[in-house]
Specification:
The chain has 2 helices and 3 strands, in the order βββαα. The protein has 93 residues and is α+β, with helices and mostly antiparallel strands. It is elongated, with a radius of gyration of 31 Å.
Length: 93
């Protein structure tokens, strides 16, 4: 982790298009201004962690349990494994 010290109205630059500026400091609370392209998603870390955890829970719920019985293979699906018989060519064709 990179640790930087900044004073009021000082900034850091992240890449070419993200600038973070210290807007206000009151006790142990720091207000930051973030200038980034509109397409850039910016989340508070605790919200990001909650979203990631909910996504993991949803993914686990959608997986098929191993003990679920599998459906029998259809007769039609076995047809694709049969050898194709083609008629022999005759001189007239």
């Amino acid at each position: 982790m990179l640790v930087l010290s900044r004073r009021l109205n000082e900034s850091i630059q992240i890449g070419e298009d993200i600038e973070v500026t210290v807007i206000d400091v009151r006790g142990d609370v720091v207000r930051l201004g973030i200038n980034a392209p509109q397409k850039t998603q910016i989340w508070r870390k605790e919200l990001w962690d909650a979203i990631v955890e909910e996504n993991k829970k949803a993914a686990r719920k959608t997986k098929t349990p191993v003990d679920t019985p599998q459906l029998p293979v259809s007769t039609f699906s076995k047809l694709s494994k049969l050898k194709t018989v083609r008629p022999k060519k005759t001189d007239n064709s």
